[in-house]
Structure prediction request, 432 residues.
Amino acid sequence: MTHPAPDNTRERLLIQAELLFSRKGFAAVSVREITSAADTNLAAVNYHFGNKMNLYLSVFKERWVPRAQEIRKFFKNFLSGKNHPDTSDVVRAIATAFLEGTMTDDEQRCQIGLMQRELAHPTEAISIVVDEVLRPMHHDIQKQIRPSFSKKADLEQLTLSIFSIISMILYFEFARPVVSLVMNQEFDSQYKSRVIDHIVSFTMNGINGFKEEKTI
Amino acid sequence: MTHPAPDNTRERLLIQAELLFSRKGFAAVSVREITSAADTNLAAVNYHFGNKMNLYLSVFKERWVPRAQEIRKFFKNFLSGKNHPDTSDVVRAIATAFLEGTMTDDEQRCQIGLMQRELAHPTEAISIVVDEVLRPMHHDIQKQIRPSFSKKADLEQLTLSIFSIISMILYFEFARPVVSLVMNQEFDSQYKSRVIDHIVSFTMNGINGFKEEKTI
DNA sequence: GTCTATAGCAGGATAGAC
DNA sequence: GTCTATCCTGCTATAGAC
Prediction:
């Protein structure tokens, strides 16, 4: 639609499919919708991808995973400046990489939306998501945080904590309209940085962190 | 299927519709699937509910909301024993009400699944969810926790913290298979109580809470 | 590689018998 | 209230012209 439409049909299909799948889910999007958004004909999906499900999987393989790698790279670069990053640096790096990385707002909503959908309703794509991105990222993060943790027995709790951070990132970005509804408050352009600050504070000190910090 | 099938067709439709919608989402479930699971005929949905979307909304009005009220009641009862519950009591009450309340495992997955789906892809039902449940619950929780918060300026952070707690509850229950995949570990029957403990600790002290508590 | 045309089927909804 | 039979739309997928 508002895209500068590359002349490659296959690429246009992937772009539009990603957008539509992330917004409505696999079942709610028709091939007709995709092909007409990509400004091509109905048969194009089957020619280039065989069938609808394979197009969906290709979206993950060819667009979602590469962008996730960018996020991972951003995360590493974000920390590379510091010699001995502490836990709060790492947490901020995660949240920032996801929410204020190299992506545009639309790309980011796409990325998080597809991930959230797969978590909520796994298809074959879930193994791609877990194997190529989630598990490696968990290892990256563990490596960075673990020095601050003494005992090996804490490993499970560290992992659960990483999941907690991810859950907040996914939730705040995706449930943004609902957060607005409940709080009776519009969220402006600074929403993301406020959310990042919240996630970092909450992760570092829990709900008690705010009282203390604010009264300093 | 495995249900003791009440003789009321309308009720059976609601039960099966809720199960299927929560598992696959609105678009992925067909009316035929619902009516055959409810062991009735294709026309029944249109006779009792007019159309498919209205059945979906009725699931929220007649099954989801009442159960959410039960959760709310459980939450209040859980706290009524204590005269001056502290924040950690309140957090445990929330997590326990959602994850170990009066519902069976299936009902609970249903409940959380439908909510997660609405958050991820709002339909008309989202206003029911927010107006009848989310916002009132937020007020309940705020009333309980706020005494520990001094300044009014902290109200927004308190609200965001409540959302953080909810995000973890939704995420850990719903993404359970993914958590297992990433951790390379099966989760037994104690999963829920471990998750509750994690959420309470994390909420109270953030990621740092574990180090301290464990070394005592 | 791109497109039109269409097969073949599953979907939601309805009419009307009982 | 319940059911069967059916309408018709929209779907995925394919065949075959260009």
The radius of gyration of chain A is 19 Å. Residues 1-5 of chain A have pLDDT under 50 and may be disordered.
